[in-house]
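Q&A log
Question type: sequence-to-structure
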Amino acid sequence: MDFSLSDEHLELRRQMREIMTATVTAEVIDETHRSGTNHAPGFIEALGDAGILARAMPGPGQDPVDMWLVSSEAEKFGAPFDAGGMATSIAGVLAQLGTDEQRRRITPGLLSGRELVCFGLTEPDGGSDLPRIKTRAVRNETDDGWIINGAKMWTTMGHVADWVFLLARSDASAGRYGGFTTFIIPMSTPGITVDPVWTMGTERSNATFYDDVRVGDECLVGEAHEGWRTMGIMLAFERGLGNTGALTPLLRRFAQWATESGTIDDPLVRDHMAQLAIEAQVAELLTQRTVWTIATGEGPGTEGSVAKVYATEAYQRAARWAQATAGADGLLRFHEAGAAADGWIDYDVRHSTPQTLQGGTSEINRNNIAERQFGLPRMR
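Response status: OK
Response body:
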């Protein structure tokens, strides 16, 4: 496996860092935490204007290293890239399964950074077990469209998004993985309601409700009742390429605080910091292995699940150790006097907790590894 970056990739990294330095200021970061919306329009639009979002779009003919590099650099810098990651993923789905009209009408806005999309997938009773969803899409024979009813949970960015990528059950008689249909629907469509859900990680997510939402076939993504195939493509883009680099900014902020406070003089603290640096490198290598596997056409396999489980659980352990080391000051939040690392240690503890849930829980990913890599029997 060769993980070295080409000159072209190094130039992309330089561009990313230049744009982030110019647009992701301390004031921008503070606003994302104040509002709970992990999105900075100036940053994402600058990536769009530079053509970086288009380069990061996954799919056949695209370089997966570009996708990983953009996401990785944003995560290490601490830049709010959630909206950009969702936009590029759905643009990639539309490139493969969308209609010409969808690619003309929707894709340019997503890749410019000026239009956003959210995911209408998880439901209150189903969690990461997507086949259990209850949202229904029923054919409306009078106007050859669809009527959608149901509720979704954790619709992050739903309150600022222009579009929702929605999974619904369209044939209740089909098997566990059959009878699903995916749609891309304007969030302004009558019948869609968005209610805030504030998370322990300071982020605003949403509960979304669909009450007799009427859409036409122009909103279908892929074939009717073949939505599980669409979901497979989208999840293959998402898993194991993002949310694996949080150890790097955590270690950077902790090291600065430890130096300023004198905590770094303790050899046990330095020893643990060295261990965290090793774990950060392992997480990066596992992620690069996922990218390499996709780039060589051998994947996706279980590499993404392995990277996600390792990286997110290492992040949780590291954040909790950092808080224990900082003591009472590690419990203080942003803008509170005496807060360790200006409140970032407290933030990392709270932010790390849902990371093992987003994009598939650790349990779901472990089942994936057990079944697909080791051939163990299904446990669900």
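Response note: Residues 239-372 form a domain with the Butyryl-CoA Dehydrogenase, subunit A; domain 3 fold (CATH 1.20.140.10).
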